[in-house]
Amino acid sequence: MAPEIRKDPVFGRWVIVASERGLRPNEFKPGGPELGHVCPFCPGHEEETPPPVYTLRNGEGGDWRLRVVLNKYPALAAGGSAANVPDGMYEHMDGIGSHEVVIDTPFHDRQLEDMPVRDVADIFRTFILRANEIKKDPGVKYIMIFKNFGQHAGASLAHPHSQIIAMPMVPIRVVTEIDGARAYSEKNGRCVFCDIVREETGFRKRVVGENDNFLAITPYASRFSFETWILPKKHESHFERMESGLAEDLASIVKGTIGKLHSALEGIAYNLIVHSMPVQDREAGHYHWHIEIMPKFNHMAGFEWGTGFYINTVSPEDAAEMMNSGKKFKI
Amino acid sequence: MAPEIRKDPVFGRWVIVASERGLRPNEFKPGGPELGHVCPFCPGHEEETPPPVYTLRNGEGGDWRLRVVLNKYPALAAGGSAANVPDGMYEHMDGIGSHEVVIDTPFHDRQLEDMPVRDVADIFRTFILRANEIKKDPGVKYIMIFKNFGQHAGASLAHPHSQIIAMPMVPIRVVTEIDGARAYSEKNGRCVFCDIVREETGFRKRVVGENDNFLAITPYASRFSFETWILPKKHESHFERMESGLAEDLASIVKGTIGKLHSALEGIAYNLIVHSMPVQDREAGHYHWHIEIMPKFNHMAGFEWGTGFYINTVSPEDAAEMMNSGKKFKI
């Protein structure tokens, strides 16, 4: 079955049903391919991925230093119609869109926090470049850019990679977040994220990183222990409109934050997600793009993820102190 | 630090920050207590839990057959004020409420699907009885009743147990669900859940269980592979107002559904959550209580849980067919 997007009749949330994606290889599953043995993302295996849509060359390890390819097992793919089709009392639409994989580096074992800042900056510049290319299709309403590290965060391959999914609708979570930010702005006359930057810069106890252009914090109402957000200090609603001159500072604070996370909690799985305005929307004063990094603990919080009801057992102030201490912890 | 409820300034969602809960024993963690060795929920260890608030006696295994105790490491507890306290630009309130644990059975290894229907019905009757008792406090706005099975679903003890959390506010997910149901009802003049019962009873391909009073389905826009919902056929907005005569039928369909889930996917972790109207709200024509059962795959979907953006690789029609087949699968 080709990917299909189904609408929940109660919440209005869209769910992608993509059966073929269940067939993708998973290095972490019992019986899956051995780690590193047949890695399709390693140099020399380029023919095992679909052809690249973008390549950065002249890497230290050989021919290329970053590749972007179409996902072989896409959540969404080209073709079909964006019309809502009735299905009994329900509705669905074709799973149109695109699903690209950014192979961050040719080095199988070089994680983000171990890469030179320059290479991390290349990853973010690539996100921006691809998002600006993809959004030329007016049917693309939202572009989700993210990175899953580790089995418990949903990664199926160990080789460092990121993902770019272009969607024909705006996910409900994004709509809710923007609505919340708009309500705050209407009430207070300011962007809530600008206020957060100001508050946290003054309070300091939730700061885990800072440079001229970005601030990294453990947010006040952290849903997950050791959750962190990275915010640009200057207001900007769309990630893909970021000046490319900021890429080094962004790379530096992301590398530093993941470094502190992995220094405090060795090897912890995480999802890194870029939150941004829908690509076809105009610049907005009330919404401010940012990055959220959510650690995934194997033994915690399964319940919270499905319900929107969160219990966090490590306060963000404690988490920041632990991340800033340079010590190791077991949670 | 006593539990505190913090409000996210963007989403308006409340997060419980409960540091002491991080200290609770976890049988599943490396270095945690050995399985079954010092189980505080087994007969003979009654003094290791706080005193019971409710006990069902005359069990086949000895003295009691079900106990309800206060959680030793509560997410919320009595005392404090429900007033919103400013905290810089943010707000929080005391973590008031209650957190009870239902010890489902004296038998350490007898899971829900292995219990006699009569014992499962006792668990649901206990939920109803406790909810009706707890809601007498007008400060209690919502009562969340749930069951985590297995490590990946957030369980910290293997002995079969359920949880009842009374909260001083209604979680945002509940508000959103009820708003969605109200919007459907205003548009269509009917309860969306009543419509789902009718639609699925006719379509059949997503039905995994049925009796006189309840229907079990894999919902059309399943967020998670093998997600199931159990709905009462007769409209009722509040779970705790269910006629106690229905408890046997409810027990039977829950037991059957978990049995099919565990028959298809051996030992899979799950969260079982009762969705119901806020306890102080009057009977509503647009909302219909139900139970959602969400399997948790170790290697899947970490991403989706944190974002509200779901990719499901097993269609609900396939999941129903697999659950009804009696065969075993590896996912």
Describe the protein:
Two copies of one chain form a homodimer. With about 325 residues, chain A is of the alpha+beta class. Chain A folds into two domains: about 5-170, HIT-like (HIT family, subunit A), CATH 3.30.428.10; about 175-325, HIT family, subunit A, CATH 3.30.428. In chain A, about 25% of the residues lie in helices and about 25% in strands. Chain A is built from six helices and 15 strands. Chain A has helices spanning about 115-135, 170-190, 190-205, 245-265, 300-305, 315-325, and strands spanning about 5, 15, 50-60, 60-70, 85, 90-95, 100-105, 140-150, 160-165, 205-210, 215, 230, 270-275, 290-295, 310. Chain A has a ten-stranded antiparallel beta sheet with strand order 3-4-7-9-8-13-14-12-11-10, with helices on both faces. In chain A, β10 and β11 (about 215) form a beta hairpin. In chain A, α1 (about 115-135) packs across α4 (about 245-265). Chain A is globular and about 50 Å long. Chains A and B meet through β2, β8, α2, α3 and β13 of A and β2, β8, α2, α3 and β13 of B.
Short description:
The structure is a homodimer of 331-residue chains. Chain A is of the alpha+beta class.
> What do we call the CATH topology of the largest domain in chain A?
HIT family, subunit A
Task: Give the name of the CATH architecture of the largest domain in chain A.
Answer: 2-Layer Sandwich
Chain pair with largest interface:
A-B, 84 and 85 residues
User: How many structural units, i.e. domains of chain A?
Assistant: 2
How many angstroms separate the termini of chain A? 41 Å
Mean pLDDT of chain A: 90
Report strand % of chain A.
25-35%
Radius of gyration of chain A: 20 Å
Q: Describe the oligomeric state of these chains in a short phrase.
A: homodimer
SSE order of chain A in H/E notation?
Answer: EEEEEEEHEEHHEEEHEEHEH
The gross shape of chain A turns out to be: globular
Number of helices of chain A: 6
User: How many strands, which pairing sense, and closed or not: the largest β-sheet of chain A?
Assistant: 10 strands, antiparallel
Q: For the largest beta sheet of chain A, what order do the strands appear in spatially?
A: 3-4-7-9-8-13-14-12-11-10
Uncertain segments of chain A:
none
